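Hello forum,

I keep getting stuck at the same step: I have a sequence, I want structure tokens, and every attempt I make locally crashes halfway through. Rather than fight my setup again tonight, could one of you with a working pipeline run this one for me? It's a single chain of 198 residues.
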Amino acid sequence: MNIYGDLRFSDSYSIKLLLRLLKIPHTWHHQDQLQDVEDEQPQICPRVELDDGKVLYEANAILTFLVSGTQFFPVERWPMLKTLQWQYFEQGQVRPTLAAAKELKTIEGINPSNQNAFDAMLAKGHSALVEVSDALAQHDYITSNKLTIADFILYADIAGVDTLGIDMTEFPNVTAWLKRIEVLPNFISQSDAIQKFI
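Reply #2:
Ran it on my machine without issues. Output:
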């Protein structure tokens, strides 16, 4: 299995994290997502190329493929629907705000030309954090007391948001949840993944 991604971006990092936690054999290929934007014929990233020639795009689809048949993807109807609900929430409310703000700060830096956009991302991201915190007030992980794919997707977006100026003392439930994930066997942080695989 060949995986193409740019670990500076949380969607690719979430895939790498899950591959590590599940100990899935694979070959990771760094693909500069910024260079792809400039190319006339960019290669979609992240993506998975299977040994039989099949190709799968989009982080949520790739992650669902990886967790299918494991303990991280519920088979019962209601837990499965709640997991999907949070996957869609991540895609619509967290990835375009908190994850995008982290990437903007890391890759471009905050300057007068993007300050307003950055501030808007933080404002919307703060609201998303409130919803995540409310869910975590009820159980250890985002959907229940069991880890699911939703936790890994959201973790990749939310870890490190304190560097954006968000006061995480407002969100003790989120901070405790981050720490629970960070002590899992084979866990790798985004910064360590970047150093090792780029």
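The mean pLDDT is 91. If your local run keeps crashing, start a new thread with the error log.
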